[in-house]
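The aim of this short unit is practical: by the end, you should be able to scan a pair of folded records and say something sensible about each. We start with the first protein, listed as its amino acid sequence and then its structure tokens.
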Amino acid sequence: MCGITGILNLDSEPVKQDLLTKMTRSLSHRGPDDEGIYIAGRVGLGHRRLSIIDLSSQGHQPMSNEDGGVWITHNGEIYNHHSLRKRLQENGHQYKSQTDTETIIHLYEEEGIECLQYLDGEFAFAIWDSKKNILFAARDRLGVKPFYYRICDKNFIFASEIKAILLHPEARKEVDLQALLYYLSFSVSPAPLTMFRDIFKLEAGHYLLINEKGRLLKKQYWDAIPKEKIDCSESEAMGGIRYKLKESIQERLMSDVPFGVFLSGGIDSSANVAFMAGMLNEPVETFNVAIDGFYAYDESYFAELVSGHFHTQHHSIRIKFEDFYAFFKELPYYTDEPLCDYACIPNFYLAKLSRENKTPVIQIGEGNDELFCGYRSYSAILNLIKYFSCLPRVIKKSAFNLLKSVQGKNLHYAIGQAVKGGDVFLGGSYLFTEQEKESMFKESFKITDFDSSLSYVAGVYAKLLNRFPQAGTLDKMIYLDLKVRLPELLLMRADKMTMANSVEARLPYLDYQFVEYALSLPSKFKYQHNRTKYIFKKSLKGILPQEVLSQAKKGFAGNPVNIFNQRFQDYVLETYEHTKPILSQWFDPDKIKDRLIFNSPGINSREGMKIWSIFSLMLWLERFFK
């Protein structure tokens, strides 16, 4: 993986080399091994390289085709580049390197924008075609790699991280209020919005073109919608899962440098280790992080069990509350936007451990819980639909009022939605309701002037149902999380925290062919007999130790409630005082302060995440706007 950036001047003015160099060097943590700049009049491409494939100077980027008419800056890996290369060479294309990047160039020469249909990998790239006078950029199907951009008065600017775009003199720093409202509900700003006004992120599975007249065309080339549900037996589904996962992991062993696995001890990372161990002649390098005091969420026992079972070379680290403090101020710098995911911090230290042990390529397990109903929130919604939503409205309303009187503010929003007949699932990281958000803002701030989180979710569901009208409740939940929470929260956490340490993360569960197969499986295989990930776990019997398969899901590093002590309270309120003048532009500061006061013994996970979301927002405001 690498860092890419670039400028296309829409008025034909030449790109300034010192500016592009500065932007490129702001991404040095993404690529410590090499730096490249290409400028041709009004276009400039920048690249920071983390050398993974073809470590020689022939892998230098930006890279061109044979006659220099097409240039590319590319971040990611193309796992089927060897098979594509063979066909392209037979068609007369001349290679000068062993890189996958060069295959993209030649494939683009052959197929144009349709080259995306042939690429299997995790990528974000920009191609300058001087013959057609167009800039062509794309983001991979699931959104593993980020691509940010801004169109100013005279320039189209893009980069792997927002901080590079902010160095351009035309890029003003302003908060996007619609994105802010979405953030409070979804824990992240959904693409194409970012928390910076007029800076956008290209959606997963999309490409864009800037033509010779400076007009932007953006189009989707892939979506996570099943073509149909396949009719198969459980044994056939198990065989398909094992076959496609093994293929995906095998492809992701492509590397000219050492690689390993982030081994949490959960089922997904353990399956990574199991299959990889059968493919290598040497022990798998595995890495685990645990947090002192978080014993309810500590999976290190299972990580060590899996390590011993498959004879891995295991590395582990335990971090303390002081390690959290040490990283609070740096967190928003690396994430660029507030990401309401406390697990960013242990992920950072895990990637640091990997880098310190000279293992710059890591396979991780993100994505599988979304595909196979691995979250407790999914099963809770399915049970709610099954046992509650079918009741007569008068009974539902009475039950709702009774539960409300017992649970008070901790009552989950889903029950209220079920009473009203609305969408019950609003996202795996849904936090503040519209009513809660409205109570936090100043009276002069009209939240009704903006789109609500409910209308956003309704639009996502409508798109799915328009193309796949037979979609059930689980299909809808999976699709929503594949559009919002996975690409813009979990995958950005993975990308930003690994790249902060110059480590490349690979995600075998998000191989698009594995995803398409998983989406096509009947929902009854995924949640059965009150068991999540039913068919996936069953497919691993005899491969993973039964003790690992039988463990209850804990979630990586748990949730932030465990660090909610008096010291953290003081830190949160100190941050609040620093950012109060900025918050007061939109929020009622007293209401925000009330939200930040917590009683550690009585707080639950969801209320804790609400506090963490405001805390993350304040850290971001302090870093970029103070």
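Turning to the second protein, read its sequence before its tokens, just as you did above.
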Amino acid sequence: YCVGDVAQGRRIFGLAAQIYGLSRDDDGGFGDFAALGDFCDAAAQRGADLVALSPTHALYAADHDHFAPYSPSSRLFLNARHAAPELVFGEERCAPIKARFAAELAAARAGELIDWPKAARVRLDYFRALFAMFHTQDMAHASPLAADFKSFRREGGLALERHALFESLHADQFARDFTKWNWRDWPAPLRDPTSPEVMAFARERAEDGFFHMFLQWMADRSLAAAHGRALASGMRIGLMSDLAIGMNAGGAHAWSKPDELLLGLSIGAPPDALAPRGQNWGLTTFSPRALKDKGFAPFIATLRAALRNAGGVRIDHVMGLVRLWLVPDGARATEGVYLSYPTDELLALLCLESRRHEAVVIGEDLGTVPHGFRENLAEHGIAGLRVLQFERNHEAFKPPHWYPAGAVAMTATHDTATMGGWWKGADIAARAELAQLPPGRTGAQCEDERAAERDMAWRAFVEARVAEGPPPRTDEAARALDAAARFVAETPAALAILPLEDALGLADQPNLPGTTTEYPNWRRRYPGEANSMLDEEKVAARLADFSARRRVA
């Protein structure tokens, strides 16, 4: 089921957004699925047929400092921090409980950047108060919501029970000793989810496990509501989820089913233009041998979780269907080796689940791509990415007509400079400040290279008739951004995605690869409210132009 099946001969477009950055009144410090629904309404009004999301995978309820969306505890469950209880219980029931936390929620919204520990802590306290209400008012009286929760528990089965149990155990061990964050450092009996000691803990802390299942139910139902709202607004695809390439070896999936994973090895990437020193992402993933032995059940379950409340999925680092660069724990990123995966079987299953869910699939095929892999993806109806900043050689940017109709055209990604930031050199300045420039390069050399690249880009824009006149100065980035958006809109690609950062004309990128705490990764809020930020005059004009150009055959 490919983009063409949805587009039906048209060229459609969408917006890509970081959920946490979407604001709504009284949101408590970061975006939730209600703000996402508001944004879907606004995007649909501007002609968008999808909203591509940052990952919604489960993180750690007990660790408020762990908020990187691409380092999940489990990809089978959701990040409950983004749950919107008002979509489940209604505003009227939530209001008096939320009022008890009004001061703390307001304080969590105060900073320029998201204060994850402060905001996540108060939101979890709010959710615990809602859980107490649910327990006494709904479960005790067998309300329709209680019946729905019981249905959710039955459907989740053992996997849901173990995820909730891990959350309880993790909170207990982490609170006792912060060095026991990773389950592999716990006492031996607690490392086995089937041990008598773990079963005894589950009985003693039954209510806490119940709470974590409640969180998953609330998150699932509110994400489903956001997707339903996107479709009701007229979007052809609605939400597009993002499937991270792996999971943290210290998380719930690894504890629940360690035999499925490659513990002791981390996924990364060899040196390339984006990260000249290579990358180690600190994630583990499925063992190809275990996948075959288990009839690929772990892969299928992961795909179904990603498509549960979405009309499509973006597969992060889709080259993992062929091979993965794996680095032994403690080694440098350059000291890895490629491990092959059963590509034919994985692609066949991906296509089957895509057809069963009538959901489109995008593969993030950036970086070192195996020979012939992009053609293989295209044959299976999986759209690869063509990002403007990368589509060039040393002499020129490739013209719009070069972009394949079956690909997805974008100006930028969450891991690259925004288009405005690229034009200004904001990414160069950030890396220079953090001593993260490519080896052997000075800031001045990088700026000289960028100046030549800007001239190349502007020449391509002029030749494509989406710009005219001399190149804008670095302080005129809005002109360059508008031209870049028009350029991408003019491509034959059936789907074009404009990152919200570029739609709004922002300079700072969400994530700077190769950094952790040095740069404010995953902490930036979008300016304005989710339901109205696209109404700003320049933004509305940019999107109107983008949409109009996509409608022209």
